[in-house]
Amino acid sequence: MEDFAGKLATKPLFYQRAYLGSLLPNYVKSGQLEKYSQKLTDFNFLMAKIQHPEFGVQALIDDFDLVDTSEAVTNPEYNSETAKALNLIQRVLWRAADILDGDKTQLAGQLLGRLLYSKIPEIQAMLEVAKQWKLAPWLRPLTPCLTPPQRRLLRTLEGHGYSVDAVALSADGKRAISGSSDKTLKVWDLTTGKELFTLTGHSYSAHVVAISSDGKRAISGSRDKTLKVWDLTTGKEEFTFNDHSYSVPLAVTADGKRAISSSSDNTLKVWDLTTGKEELTLYIYGRRNSASLVKAVAVSADGKWAISGSYGSILMVWDLTTGNVLFAANQSHAYSVNAVALTADGKWAISGGDDNTLKVWDLTTRNKLFTLSHSDSVNELFALSHSDSVKAVAVSADGKRAISGSSDNTLKVWDLTTGDEQFTPDGHSNSVHTVAVTADGKWAISGSSDKTLKVWDLTNRNELFTLKSHSGSIKAVAVTDDGKLAVSGSFDKTLKVWDLTTRNELFILKGHRVTGKAVAVTADGKRAISGSR
Fold this sequence. Notes:
Elements: H1 4-9, H2 13-29, H3 33-40, H4 43-51, H5 57-63, H6 69-72, H7 80-102, H8 107-115, H9 121-131, E1 164-169, E2 175-180, E3 184-189, E4 195-200, E5 206-211, E6 217-222, E7 227-231, E8 236-241, E9 250-252, E10 258-263, E11 267-272, E12 278-283, E13 294-299, E14 305-310, E15 315-319, E16 325-329, E17 337-342, E18 348-353, E19 357-362, E20 380-385, E21 390-395, E22 401-406, E23 411-415, E24 421-423, E25 432-437, E26 443-448, E27 452-457, E28 462-468, E29 474-479, E30 485-490, E31 494-499, E32 504-510, E33 516-521, E34 528-532
Antiparallel strand pairs: 1-2, 2-3, 3-4, 5-6, 6-7, 7-8, 9-10, 10-11, 11-12, 13-14, 14-15, 15-16, 17-18, 18-19, 19-20, 21-22, 22-23, 23-24, 25-26, 26-27, 27-28, 29-30, 30-31, 31-32, 33-34
Helix pairs in contact: 2-3, 4-5, 5-7, 7-8, 8-9
């Protein structure tokens, strides 16, 4: 085969730039979409562009975005099959970008290994040319043996020396930050797939990470018992919080101004992310032992209150402005408190425990510290029962309903005005570990040890559909504010993103070494944050 790229390299630099950099935009501007698509299905052109030192893989990927496919399909020169072919080729380049950045000669093998199954004529013609490429040694796939582009995996980011334990996304979706057992964090450009910089300073694995809402700061938590705040503009460490005695889980308020860390040293700490100062230390009620270890934490929408539940059935509500304990229940449940939630207006709290009950608490009836007990009818409004441990609880945005999940394999929907059970969705075949409610209160999503997610219509009181793909128990689920996407975390060490409109799995997020135990989605639906064992 003629060395097309080598022949092009003999041309003047201005000619190379014009051919590889300007030709496709000019085709698009002049409406020559047939010539545009022909170039992007021309193996020789693809190889020449990724091999050129001024262009490369990302520049080629960007070429596929010059045309809006939804509009172009109406053009007689650009039919739906052509659009599909270009989409598949672009997805192969996304998926193989990390490989091609290291070895450009892998292009033919990557295309064949991922697209041999396709019957689209343009792709078949391109692959026939690719098979004849002989300018370097390479292994030619005889079957479609590599991950096909439809699997939704766009790109692999490589650079850590050990397992990736945490990941967070910026609000604009342009950057990701990963935390690893190699003691570092890495900041990635999600458009190009490039590592922007590495954040070093932890002396042990960085297992929790969050990004402020303005995208200027990252906060990481490590098993070295510290939190670190990083400037994402410079990549420099701003300050370190190191007053905990044990491993540090992390939460950040919605405005990104404060971080709340809870630890097995019997405390929660509130940190000012602007000054780097510790604002408050919140002491868990009782002695430091396994009973006081925090198992569940929730923060009110306005960031003023936090509620914690512990193994020893201790429920505490905190004023995050003063650090005062507003309410404390030393025996809130007969056994461990597994789940807590606050209504959007902050007036009620709902807790779920190993005693098979949920309890609804009125947080406005007293304004000083007191202990809630089962006999305190003023403050414990009512108790709601399952036949086994309550593992999860969620509250509708209007505060009128609570939905609980239990080891008895059921969910229960409760009227928080009357305390009555409205109905019991019972389609799961094993324990329900997690539940979320859409912002409009119309749907609930539950995750179970039966490895499925189920979506429920709370108005018509029926199961809408089941999402199956996880290979392990589902431990966490979150829903975007618009109710269109759900994110699930599983014992199979993955997170999955689901389209609730089409009922399809969009993509898989991998990185945790063990169970994905917690997941949250930002209000704009652009980023998810997960936590693992």
